From TrEMBL:
This is leucine--tRNA ligase. Belongs to the class-I aminoacyl-tRNA synthetase family.
Length: 256
């Protein structure tokens, strides 16, 4: 953890189709014509092309918070409070009240639109035990090509779909290369997970090492392989991708 404030990009993943449990929990609590977004906080906006699913903590409680007349955000109450202070929610700086509450596990299977993702038909909400309720928004978008944590979790989910109460194919969306690196190739996270012999999301120590290696290599030596900034270094592409997402209304700045 750094000392200064962490500048995240908060991405807006619009709900296309709720899981049945989530649909029941929010019924009648928000206007029929409102859009609801799951809002993951990321430090790697340039990797959003590679989103294959969206993680929630199965035991974490989330709220639907009003951002405008027609938009609601799904985040933890803690994040909503920070957002209100930052002028992001329609709460006028007051402590925001959730229009509805949802437990993470109830949202599993929900289909969301992931901005920039190569998976244009949407991606599924899936459970991740390692999501911390005390960091970001409690929602994590999954980019298994470049995040060892994400790769390890989708691999685990695809191994035991019944145990996790999901459909196997939800965890098996194609992982496309988005960033090329000199040392680890163009699928940095799968490469490092294999190299360090990481077997499950419980190998926390090796995952930490893989995460540091992937981050340093990707950020300082990576080159974009997809999108408007193909051929540009990650270092230069990152702020450009972030700004275009914000300009398109698909993301906003969030700090904590
Ligand atoms: B990152 P920092 Cl491709 N619990 O986004 C656990 N992890 C969380 C979280 C939470 N509540 N909130 C955010 N995160 C993840 C992309 C990514 C990320 C890539 C590579 C590395 C990476 C796609 N997942 O993060 O502790 C989010 O995953 C490695 C550092 O605030 C977010 O960025 O520094 C990052 O951790 C924020 O971690």
């Amino acid at each position: 953890e750094g000392v200064g404030p962490q500048e995240y990009t908060a991405l807006k993943l619009r709900v296309l189709e709720w899981s049945s449990k989530a649909a029941d929990a929010i019924k009648g609590k928000i206007p029929e014509d409102a859009s609801v977004f799951l809002v993951p906080a990321t430090l790697r906006p340039e990797t959003m092309y590679g989103q294959t699913c969206c993680f929630i903590g199965p035991k974490i409680t989330y709220g639907l918070f009003k951002a405008s007349e027609k938009e609601y955000y799904v985040v933890t109450a803690r994040a909503a409070k920070n957002m209100a202070f930052q002028g992001i929610l329609a709460a006028d700086g007051a402590i925001p009240e959730a229009a509805a509450e949802l437990v993470g596990s109830d949202m599993v299977g929900t289909l969301v639109n992931a901005p920039l993702s190569v998976h244009k038909d949407g991606v599924r909400v899936l459970p991740m035990e390692n999501v911390l309720p005390t960091k970001g928004t409690g929602v994590v978008t999954s980019v298994p090509s470049d995040s060892p944590d994400d790769f390890c979790t989708v691999t685990e989910l695809a191994k035991k779909p019944e145990y996790y109460g999901i459909q196997k194919e939800w965890a098996e969306k194609e992982i496309v290369p988005i960033i090329d690196t000199p040392s680890y190739g163009d699928l940095c996270a799968p490469f490092l997970v294999k190299k360090l012999k990481i077997a499950s999301p419980k190998d926390v120590k090796q995952l930490e090492e893989a995460k540091n290696l992937a981050y340093t290599e990707g950020f300082y030596k990576g080159v974009m392989k997809v999108g408007d900034h193909t051929g540009l270094s990650v270092e230069k592409a990152k702020p450009l991708v972030r700004q275009s997402l914000i300009d398109a209304g698909e993301a906003f700045a969030y700090a904590e």
